């Protein structure tokens, strides 16, 4: 079933809003320590605790308004609950920092399995946005698969070797910028394999 069309600004707010709120809350609380039930919690943990229900509410609102959620949105919500919950429960920020790694690895592996079968699972998700010939989808899928594995590795390097603040900036802006720049550099592929080039 295709998704219902909603106001694009509302859609963007529901998708990106929780990340912006997380970033702003982190900047506000990053240097504070909260004692709850005799246990000290860094600001990052409290912000993570608030991010989980906010993300779930926004995801539920998207589903209610559009009647559809992508596989990535569903998996992301599940991993936020699991790894965000572990970070809060165990008072250990490392679990939440692992989440992007697992998301990118899972989708990289899924796309790779499709490639081994001679299929583009990316096409099933994005065909309505970018009509391409089969050859174009296969090339784009190979590139996106490599991108996902690269981002998974990059996230691991950054959270394991740099400060929490650096990771938050990377998670909020770096990952989004990387995906945006990637698709900006695929113009020649879209022109070469776009169905519009074939004519009627």
TrEMBL record:
It is found in: Cell inner membrane. It is a multi-pass membrane protein. GO terms for cellular component: plasma membrane. Pfam families: IspA (PF04279). It comes from the Bacteria. The chain crosses the membrane at residues 12-29, 41-62, 74-90, 102-122, 143-162, 168-185. Keywords: Cell inner membrane, Cell membrane, Membrane, Transmembrane, Transmembrane helix. Belongs to the YciB family. Plays a role in cell envelope biogenesis, maintenance of cell envelope integrity and membrane homeostasis. This is Inner membrane-spanning protein YciB. The lineage of its organism: Bacteria, Pseudomonadati, Pseudomonadota, Alphaproteobacteria, Rhodobacterales.
């Amino acid at each position: 079933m295709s998704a219902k069309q909603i106001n694009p600004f509302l859609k963007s707010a529901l998708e990106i809003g929780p990340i912006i709120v997380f970033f702003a809350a982190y900047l506000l609380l990053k240097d504070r320590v909260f004692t709850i039930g005799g246990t000290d919690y860094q600001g990052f943990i409290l912000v993570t605790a608030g991010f989980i229900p906010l993300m779930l509410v926004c995801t539920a609102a998207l589903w209610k308004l559009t009647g559809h959620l992508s596989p990535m949105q569903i998996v992301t919500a599940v991993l936020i609950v699991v790894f965000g919950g572990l970070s809060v429960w165990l008072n250990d920020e490392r679990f939440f920092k692992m989440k992007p790694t697992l998301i990118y690895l899972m989708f990289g592996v899924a796309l790779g399995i499709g490639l081994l079968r001679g299929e583009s699972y990316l096409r099933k998700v994005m065909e309505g946005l970018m009509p391409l010939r089969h050859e174009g989808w296969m090339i784009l899928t190979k590139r996106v698969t490599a991108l996902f594995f690269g981002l998974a590795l990059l996230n691991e390097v950054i959270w394991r070797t740099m400060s929490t603040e650096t990771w938050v900036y990377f998670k909020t802006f770096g990952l989004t910028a990387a995906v945006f720049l990637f698709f900006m550099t695929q113009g020649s592929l879209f022109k070469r394999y776009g169905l519009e080039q074939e004519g009627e």
